[in-house]
Write a structure and sequence with these properties.
elongated; single chain; 2 domains; disordered N terminus; disordered C terminus
Length: about 240
């Protein structure tokens, strides 16, 4: 991997210069936008997408609400595990950032001193996108699209090779898919217990909370309307 980084005659480096060259030709204000989007904006958008999906699932309620919310809980956990798995990978490969080995790159973010392979941002966003796809296909497709855009931004910003991004996307996908069955087996019973609790049911299903309150109110009204037995009326008198 390091050998590829040192050579300028390979598709990885050529594509790096082609994509990063767009930053040189773009207006300064556009590069500032891409810097923010690639560093923070898409991660924030992914979080908001997950919250939106949770709100939709919670409002819909139903028998599958607990398993659906369990799948959404897996989304941030998958992202965290992808980062943890990447720690030994980066230490083993030890690939320098592209701007350290190649001149003439337009680097939009300074201070990147850690290794380049694989991209944490690409791994995090793809893990979240794929895990979200497992929970909800419509939202998941949007999440995967955001992850692909994140990968493009990292190369555009001059902080990653294209293969760093591809590796990150593959890592995030593998973590989200391979560990999803285990995660669901552990999280679904937990979320069902939360759904049935008095303090956390609203986290899983808004309808379940309203139904429980309506049922309790109906029981109370029925109890008030039912006449007391004769012996109880005598005691009351």
């Amino acid at each position: 991997m390091a050998g590829l980084a040192e050579s300028g005659a390979n598709p990885d480096v050529d594509l790096l210069y082609d994509i990063n060259g767009l930053a040189k030709d773009a207006p300064r204000w556009f590069d500032r936008i891409m810097e923010y989007v690639g560093e923070y904006g898409l991660l924030l958008a992914m979080v908001l997408l997950v919250v939106w999906c949770w709100w939709s699932v919670r409002r819909r309620g139903g028998a599958e609400a607990a398993s659906s919310v369990a799948a959404l809980v897996w989304v941030p956990l998958a992202a965290g595990l992808a980062v943890l798995v990447n720690v030994p990978i980066r230490g083993f490969v030890q690939r320098p950032r592209p701007f350290l080995d190649h001149q003439g790159l337009e680097v939009l973010v300074s201070g990147k001193t850690d290794y380049s392979f694989v991209s944490d941002h690409a791994a995090i966003t793809m893990a979240m996108g794929v895990a979200l796809f497992v929970a909800n296909r419509r939202f998941g497709l949007v999440g995967i699209g955001l992850a692909l855009l994140e990968g493009f931004c990292r190369v555009y910003m001059g902080v990653h090779y294209p293969t760093d991004v591809v590796g990150g996307l593959a890592l995030g996908t593998a973590v989200a898919l391979l560990l999803s069955p285990l995660a669901m087996a552990l999280l679904t019973p937990l979320l069902r217990a939360v759904e049935g609790s008095a303090w956390g049911g609203w986290l899983v299903s808004a309808r379940g909370v309203r139904a429980g309150r309506d049922e309790a109110g109906e029981v109370g009204r029925r109890g008030a309307e039912e006449p007391l037995p004769a012996e109880d009326r005598d005691l009351a008198a």
